[in-house]
Design goal:
The complex is a heterodimer of chains A (210) and B (278). Chain A is of the alpha+beta class and 210 residues long. Chain A has four helices and seven strands; from the N terminus they run E-E-E-H-E-H-E-H-H-E-E. In chain A, helix 1 crosses helix 2 and helix 2 (97-115) packs parallel to helix 3. With 278 residues, chain B is an alpha/beta fold. Chain B is built from nine helices and eleven strands. The chains are: A alpha+beta (210), B alpha/beta (278).
Chain lengths: 210, 278
């Protein structure tokens, strides 16, 4: 698809941002969808140190493999010691049976190796995984595992890095959705905190998450 | 599919992260609809690494507060002012992200806020709002710039939960008569959730100009079609539904409000999804 942003949507595209300390974002090309030959379709958002994490997930009974796997990782680690999240676009890895679960786990384990090359295959991964795109297709896992090492060079904490990650998770979206802001808390008004976030979605949207 | 990733450098206790996120998501991502289809992959992840927090700051946390009343034990949650402030920041932030998704709805030309006020329960107000947001006929009317309040009322009238609750209320009433027991308060509220003679519908223009009343306490207004067209030509629109309008606004009463965000339905949606395949 041509990903040029329509004129009417340009106003929603941030030209700068203030991003939280200690987080890195970036993207890479894996070619998950056969028709995609040029756009990045793998995104990584990660913390430089292990940190608490949580997530809300769809209540749809046919939960996709990355949903089931990420839910399991969060429970197994008690929401502690996470490094980040890897997202692929182009294939949802949904209704893909037990092989889909294996693929989602492989995504997490291969990403773990970016920050811990000696990570044991017995340990619960420190990476959450997400997938979006066509339902009912097997994930081309080899393309993804081949592209994950490229993320190491492509992550950073500039606006461009965050924007690239926000673009990489898009499917039929016409523009990347990225926001950031700063704030203070009442007990320490001199300390400035940051929050940043990205989202994607344009169709099949009626979330009911818990 | 909706995917979201939110990161902050605040220090938060891992056990409190989930409550914080769920509270924010319930007022943001769980309050949007583009096409009424709930995906198999929807996920919003939240990370907090504490990198900006001074070293002596303890992680923010919720503390459970056990309470008992006649109906049995229940747990309420207490939060300190920092956590409440963070909850407000996160909720507002998540709402802004969620609204961007609606603005990018496949083929959408309008961003629509649905605000429903009720004097029964928040659930009833939300059920009505969701039903309007899911109605293909309401959404095509919005695309066609048609102030079709009839379709809005129709969607409220069949709202799952409200309609079913009225049936349950009737069953409760019969049971109460037979057993001579008092009726359940919830079922009385369900029957009062939507009363046509207390229902009003208006369009609130995005430019801050005066609201356009379409229906007042069950009676249709003489709608200025030209004015309606002007309002519907704007990208943003708010539909205000009052289920508690008894015409005595001076009287104090408890009114709850549900807000839902949606978009219109266009030819383009069919084109995109007729082409998007395995």
């Amino acid at each position: 698809a041509d990903r040029s942003i329509p004129a009417a949507k340009q106003k929603y595209l941030p030209t700068s941002g203030t991003y939280p300390k200690g987080f890195l974002a970036g993207s890479a090309f894996a070619g998950v969808k056969a028709s995609n030959t040029k756009y990045h379709d793998l995104a990584l958002v990660m913390s430089e140190t292990p940190c608490p994490a949580t997530a809300t997930f769809t209540k749809n009974i046919f939960k996709a493999a990355p949903v089931a796997i990420s839910k399991h990782f969060l429970a197994a680690r008690g929401s502690e010691g996470f490094r980040g999240v890897l997202v692929n676009s182009g294939c949802a890895n949904a209704v893909t049976g037990s092989l889909g679960l294996d693929h989602a786990t492989t995504m997490a384990r291969e990403t773990d190796k970016l920050f811990n090359p000696t990570a044991s295959d017995d340990a619960v991964p420190q990476t959450l995984v997400m997938s979006t795109g066509v339902i009912g297709q097997r994930l081309p896992i080899r393309k993804i595992t081949a592209a994950i090492p490229k993320l190491k060079e492509n992550v950073g904490n500039t606006h461009e890095h965050w924007l690239n990650a926000a673009k990489a998770i898009c499917t039929t979206d016409t523009f990347p959705k990225l926001l950031s802001r700063t704030f203070t808390l009442p007990s320490h008004p001199d300390t400035t905190y940051s929050i940043a976030g990205m989202t994607k979605g344009a169709g099949m949207i009626h979330p009911n998450m818990a | 599919t909706l995917l979201g990733i939110i990161c902050t450098d605040v220090k938060i206790d891992p056990a409190s992260m989930r409550t914080l996120l769920v509270r924010a998501v319930n007022k943001s991502f769980n309050c949007i609809s583009i096409d009424g289809d709930t995906s198999t992959n929807d996920t919003v992840a939240f990370f907090a690494n504490g990198a900006a927090a001074p070293e002596d700051v303890k992680p923010l946390y919720y503390s459970p507060m056990d309470e008992r009343d006649d109906s049995g034990p229940r747990v309420r949650i207490r939060a300190n002012s920092d956590l409440l402030a963070l909850e407000r920041v996160l909720t507002g932030f998540a709402q802004d992200l969620a609204k961007l998704v609606v603005r990018d709805g496949e083929g959408a030309t309008k961003f629509v806020t649905i605000r429903v006020k009720s004097d029964t329960t928040h659930d009833n107000a939300k059920r009505a709002a969701v039903s309007i947001a899911r109605s293909a006929l309401v959404k095509t009317a919005l695309y066609g710039k048609d102030a079709n309040w009839g379709r809005i009322l129709c969607a409220i009238g069949y709202a799952p939960g409200i309609m079913d609750s009225r049936e349950i209320r009737l069953a409760d009433l019969r049971l109460a008569r037979i057993t001579r027991q008092p009726e359940k308060e919830d079922s009385i509220k369900a029957e009062r959730a939507v009363i046509p003679k207390r229902t009003s519908v208006s369009f609130i223009p995005a430019d801050g100009s005066e609201e356009l009343k379409l229906l007042v306490r069950g009676e249709p207004e003489q709608v200025d079609e030209e004015r309606a067209k002007q309002i519907l030509e704007m990208e943003d629109l708010e539909i205000l539904v009052r289920l508690e309008d008894d015409g005595k606004s001076a009287e104090p009463k408890r009114v709850t409000e549900a807000v839902f965000w949606t978009c219109d339905f266009s030819h383009e949606y069919v084109t995109i999804n007729g082409d998007y395949r395995t």
